[in-house]
Amino acid sequence: MTTDKCIRAVVAGVGSCLPVRRVTNADLEKTVDTTSEWIAQRTGIHNRYIAGEGETTSTLATGAAAKALAAAGLTADAVDLIIVATATPDYTFPATATQVQAALGITRGAAFDLQAVCSGFVYAVTVAEKFIVTGSSTCALVIGAETFSRILDWNDRTTCVLFGDGAGAMVLQAAPGTGTIADRGVLTSHLRSDGRHREKLYVDGGPSATGTVGHLRMSGREVFRHAVGMVTDVMTDAFAATGLSADDLDWFVPHQANERIIDASAEKLGIDPAKIVKTVALHGNTSAASIPLALAAAVEDGRIKAGDLVMIEAMGGGFTWGAAIIRW
């Protein structure tokens, strides 16, 4: 690592927001041809939250952003960049980020959405970090927010039991660094995609293709088969770029899709199970919201503390995947 002085994108605060309605596996048994045990054994999911009337991706994103700003001790006027990672925007346009911007009373800077499905938050952190280190931004709100319940086929028991709604947010601020891995902030990030795998995880609708919203379609076994290899690839790249190893990590915060994928990825790279932050049982798969929801939970309960080394990683439809290492 270089020792030249540099600008780092440092985490100043995190926050989360969930819909009011919690839906348990037992609740789903009443309407879906499944059992609580089947869901739990295959995925590790026990609960998820489903957006109700008046709850949208933008309202959840705004709630999470407000909490992140409060945790950072900042007011909205400090923000000059908002990136919302989402595959379920309120509207085709305008961007959900601009609705968050308006709701928070922000009238400066830039706001836009980023679409990389479940990898969206890792992508958004990476993009925000580039804005900050180049001097284009000094304070960014990075948000993962989804209402996947609105693109689910509730007659497809293999997918509808997996997903939930919610939002998580992170405030990234510019701060001076030394250019070493001792710095606080985003130390490295690595993104990948391979569009040849579209049919394995996609939504069968869209404005240009069908003029409809469509429903989520997934080949679960194929996704599982690719997931472990792909995410460990970018995790290995992150270790190589920093000279760090699995032993150096304090916390591993993966995308919360399936407990078996999480455990297999950690085991492949030798990450101590005690270092894994898991919220999949509580929230289900919330796509781009899953990592920031998990980060907020681990900060709130005191696990993640200043100075800790945290790795985030995700894989999503596309396929897209990525990983980043952050010193808190």
Summary tags:
single chain, alpha/beta, Peroxisomal Thiolase, Chain A, domain 1, 2 domains, five-stranded mixed beta sheet, 9 helices, globular
Question: What's the helical proportion of residues?
Answer: 25-40%
Amount of beta strand = 25-35%
Might you state the CATH topology name of the largest domain? Peroxisomal Thiolase, Chain A, domain 1
The overall pLDDT average reads 96
Largest sheet: 5 strands, mixed
The helix/strand series, from N terminus to C terminus, equals EEHHEHEHEHEEEEEHEHHHEE
- For this structure, what is the CATH homologous superfamily of the largest domain? Thiolase/Chalcone synthase
Query: What oligomeric state best describes the polypeptide chains here?
Result: single chain
Shape: globular
Q: How many structurally independent domains?
A: 2
Number of helices: 9
Instruction: Tell me how many strands there are.
Output: 13
Rounded to the nearest angstrom, the radius of gyration is 19 Å
By secondary-structure content and strand pairing, the structural class works out as alpha/beta
Distance between the termini: 18 Å
Question: Reading side by side through the largest sheet, how are the strands ordered?
Answer: 1-7-6-4-5
Can you summarize this structure?
It is built from nine helices and 13 strands.
3D architecture notes:
The protein has 328 residues and is an alpha/beta fold. It folds into two domains: 6-177, Peroxisomal Thiolase, Chain A, domain 1; 185-327, Thiolase/Chalcone synthase (Peroxisomal Thiolase, Chain A, domain 1, 3-Layer(aba) Sandwich), CATH 3.40.47.10. It contains nine helices and 13 strands. The chain has helices at 25-29, 36-43, 57-72, 96-103, 120-133, 220-242, 259-268, 280-283, 290-300; strands at 6-17, 21-24, 47-50, 81-85, 110-114, 139-147, 165-177, 185-193, 201-203, 216-218, 251-254, 309-316, 320-327. Strands 1-7-6-4-5 form a five-stranded mixed beta sheet, with helices on both faces. A four-stranded mixed beta sheet has the order 8-13-12-11, sandwiched between helices. A hairpin with a 3-residue loop joins β12 and β13. α6 (220-242) packs parallel to α7 (259-268). The protein is globular.
